[in-house]
């Protein structure tokens, strides 16, 4: 029997906005940026689509010149749409939902929710990608244009990744080669999950939304002070439905950050489980990595560059390689609009007109939203903000949740907690309340929720008792047990060990983007750059004014050796101080990017290349001025090579320091500890004994660089003998070997820097 009314929903892939319209029978409407139904997108026309509801359901057709396709097939006439279809208006995809219609497979077609892959005896290859014209369009910025192939042949059904940036995963394992799909296999691409039923790849979640189940979670650590095992979380059970905004609060030290990090996989729990859409998070972490948004307490944005540029670099680092500049600009406009900073696109984050604390937090949030995550974790994202800004931020988080993102936020401020769907209250690592905020006061018998802290601190009732009371409550039955009952069994993938990140993987594009960003940062901080560039000429002029090359040939040779020593020490000083803070000063950003997809080697290369250029400029000025003022007799190319290599190896030493420490102060404090031995063991200040000579040869840049400098003196100077008959300029090795040793030490420091950064991968 024909229905009199029908509802159609358009879920935008751009911002996950849902647009719903109820139709009367035989009603005709248009959709577009100025149609009866407003649908937005970069190339959506004012009236782009005609829609008619009748006895055959919904029929859509192009209403003007704009291209329309359904599931990748262009249409020119009225064509039916069914639940789960992907409708493309230009390049903007909308998933159609027909709430009153049972989902079914389009006959002979490729309905997105249930893709029949072996309905043909003929071998065929289906393309999965983010564009509408794919056989299998997955509208997410994290999906590559040509992401994966499904190959249906007589030997079975295979899946193959096409070199995508964010990977194709089968049962939580990133695909490295073509594999045959087995019944029950879970395929994940970005936040989309499918189960292979034998003849269908069935989408198990809609539009990539995330449902979180936390079951029996506990976390043990060894307390460094007492050497005893300490339980930070105990028996945590929660279920968060897709699109819910959940606030985590509790007394100080109650385990909020620990729980947040256990739920997002940054610091996994010791036991229990965390499921995202019924898939074990820890076992399949790599498949979720790119689609989890995380805003830590510290800002994750470089302050020295323009807002739009900071976001563009993030987009280039996180989005697939084939994302073009138009798409990146669209994403930047989308996220700045979302965090209500559209007018700050070309504003500097820091000077001359710094963004406010709230605006800075919103930029950090925008950084995370660039990849359009489906689940967003915010750790005290409103701390330090005034009450008004806190309110705006909380409302913003609630709006993000209405865009079908699951949002979990730790906060201390309870003033604006009403805007969230559910609150989690922790006390001494135990769950003492999980339910709607408006029910919390009634549950605890309080007038204001802020009084709950005093109630919990009252030692008469222990944390275990509070947890027990909650487990016995109707709220626990409704919000934990009731929801938990809808969770399917633990998937097989839970048994898998997480894949290790390759240590020496090198992504040229990533290295290029990071290098450009680093150049941008160095050039934006003009005052600092000027100070760095002025150091060398100032020292060179000082040397030129103080030193006089006087006396006989031997005295002059000794003086030139002393000047060489001073130049080498200056170069080592420049190199170390140029780099000693370069990692640690951006540690929160490094850690966040590393947790997504940052490679250690591309990261270090991006630092080394600009810093090498800086060293070269400094050494040219240092040597050029000193050489001219003092008429030195060192060969210019040879001595420049020795100076530059010394400065560069010292840069590597500074990076190694920066990679191991966790604060700027520590980096600055350690630098002299490394620099003083370079002076003492250079073989220029004090004569070296057997042991000290061995230490100098095996670890001192200054020892080999000074020997290299001396080797560039003219032969007649090197042939001079002093009064005792010994060479006036004693040498240890020839120039090539000296330079090779300096380079080798630089390489060793780079390896130490790699080890320091690798160490930071360990969860706390
Ligand atoms: N690695 C660790 N070893 C020992 N104790 C730890 C470790 N990590 C956290 N803790 C302790 O566990 C407790 C919970 O820490 P967590 O940071 O999760 O609390 P929180 O509720 O977020 O605290 P706050 O509100 O003060 O930020 C704290 O008492 C903390 O000192």
Automatic annotation (TrEMBL):
Membrane topology: Multi-pass membrane protein
PROSITE patterns on file: ABC_TRANSPORTER_1, ABC_TRANSPORTER_2, FHA_DOMAIN
GO molecular function: ATP binding
SMART domains: AAA, FHA
The entry's keywords: ATP-binding, Membrane, Nucleotide-binding, Transmembrane, Transmembrane helix, Transport
Cell location: Membrane
Coiled-coil residue spans: none
Organism: Methylomonas rivi
Pfam families: ABC2_membrane, ABC_tran, FHA
Name by which UniProt lists this protein: ATP-binding cassette domain-containing protein
ABC transporter domain sequence ranges: 212-453
PANTHER family assigned: ABC TRANSPORTER G FAMILY MEMBER 28 (PTHR48041), PROTEIN SCARLET (PTHR48041:SF139)
Keyword flag Transmembrane: yes
Residue spans crossing the bilayer: 529-549, 561-580, 600-626, 638-661, 667-686, 739-757
């Amino acid at each position: 029997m024909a229905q009199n009314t029908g509802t159609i929903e358009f879920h935008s892939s751009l911002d996950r906005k849902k647009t719903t319209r109820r139709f009367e029978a035989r009603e005709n409407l248009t959709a577009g940026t100025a149609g009866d139904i407003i649908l937005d997108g970069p190339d959506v026309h004012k009236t782009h689509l005609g829609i008619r509801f009748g006895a055959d359901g919904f029929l859509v057709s192009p209403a003007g010149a704009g291209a329309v396709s359904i599931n990748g097939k262009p249409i020119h006439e009225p064509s039916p749409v069914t639940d789960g279809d992907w409708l493309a208006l230009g390049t903007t995809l909308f998933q159609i939902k027909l709430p009153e219609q049972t989902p079914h497979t389009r006959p002979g077609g490729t309905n997105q929710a249930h893709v029949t892959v072996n309905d043909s005896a003929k071998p065929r290859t289906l393309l999965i990608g983010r564009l509408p014209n794919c056989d299998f369009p997955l509208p997410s910025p994290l999906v590559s244009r040509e992401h994966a192939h499904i190959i249906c042949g007589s030997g079975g059904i295979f899946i193959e990744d096409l070199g995508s940036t964010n990977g194709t995963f089968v049962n939580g394992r990133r695909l490295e080669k073509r594999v045959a799909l087995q019944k029950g296999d879970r395929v994940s691409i970005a936040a989309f999950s499918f189960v292979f039923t034998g003849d269908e790849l069935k989408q198990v979640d809609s539009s990539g939304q995330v449902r979180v189940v936390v079951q029996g979670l506990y976390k043990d650590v060894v307390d460094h002070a007492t050497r005893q095992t300490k339980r930070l979380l105990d028996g945590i059970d929660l279920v968060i439905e897709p699109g819910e905004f959940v606030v985590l609060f509790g007394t100080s030290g109650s385990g909020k950050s620990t729980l947040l990090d256990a739920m997002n996989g940054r610091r996994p729990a010791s036991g229990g489980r965390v499921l995202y859409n019924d898939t074990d998070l820890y076992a399949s972490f790599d498949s979720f990595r790119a689609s989890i948004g995380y805003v830590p307490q510290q800002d994750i944005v470089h302050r020295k560059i323009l807002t739009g540029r900071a976001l563009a670099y993030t987009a280039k680092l996180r989005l697939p390689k084939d994302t073009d500049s138009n798409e990146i600009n669209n994403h930047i406009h989308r996220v700045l609009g979302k965090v209500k900073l559209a007018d700050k696109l070309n504003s500097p984050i820091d000077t001359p007109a710094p963004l406010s604390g709230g605006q800075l937090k919103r930029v950090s949030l925008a950084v995370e939203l660039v990849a359009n995550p489906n689940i967003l974790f915010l750790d005290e994202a409103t701390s330090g903000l005034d009450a008004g800004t806190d309110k705006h931020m909380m409302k913003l988080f609630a709006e993000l949740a209405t865009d079908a993102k699951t949002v979990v936020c730790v906060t201390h401020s309870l003033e604006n907690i009403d805007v969230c769907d559910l609150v989690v209250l922790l006390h001494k690592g135990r769950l003492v309340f999980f339910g709607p905020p408006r029910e919390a006061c009634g549950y605890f018998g309080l007038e204001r929720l802020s009084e709950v802290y005093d109630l919990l601190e009252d030692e008469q009732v222990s944390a275990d008792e509070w947890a027990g009371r909650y487990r016995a409550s109707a709220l626990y039955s409704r919000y934990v047990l009731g929801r938990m009952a809808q969770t399917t069994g633990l998937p097989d993938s839970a048994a898998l060990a997480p894949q290790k990140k390759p240590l020496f993987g090198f992504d040229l594009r990533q290295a290029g983007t990071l290098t450009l960003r680093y150049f941008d940062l160095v050039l934006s901080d003009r005052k600092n750059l000027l100070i760095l560039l002025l150091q060398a000429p100032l020292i060179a002029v000082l040397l030129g004014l103080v030193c006089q090359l006087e006396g006989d040939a031997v005295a002059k040779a000794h003086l030139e050796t002393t000047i060489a020593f001073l130049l080498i020490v200056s170069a080592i000083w420049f190199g170390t101080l140029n780099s000693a803070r370069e990692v640690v000063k951006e540690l929160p950003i490094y850690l966040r990017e590393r947790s997504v997809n940052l490679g250690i080697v591309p990261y270090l290369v991006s630092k080394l290349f600009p810093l090498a250029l800086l060293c070269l400029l400094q050494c040219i000025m240092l040597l050029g001025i000193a050489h001219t003022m003092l008429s030195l007799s060192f060969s210019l190319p040879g001595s420049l090579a020795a100076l530059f290599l010394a400065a560069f190896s010292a840069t590597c030493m500074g990076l190694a320091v920066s990679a191991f420490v966790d604060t700027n102060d520590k980096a600055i404090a350690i630098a002299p500890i490394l620099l003083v031995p370079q002076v003492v063991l250079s073989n220029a200040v004090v004569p070296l004994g057997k042991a000290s000579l061995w230490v100098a040869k095996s670890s001192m840049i200054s020892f080999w660089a000074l020997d290299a400098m001396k080797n560039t003196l003219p032969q007649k100077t090197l042939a001079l003998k002093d009064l005792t008959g010994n060479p006036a300029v004693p040498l240890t090795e020839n120039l090539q070997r000296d330079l090779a040793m300096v380079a080798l030490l630089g390489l060793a420091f780079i390896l130490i820097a790699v080890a320091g950064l690798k160490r930071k991968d360990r969860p706390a």
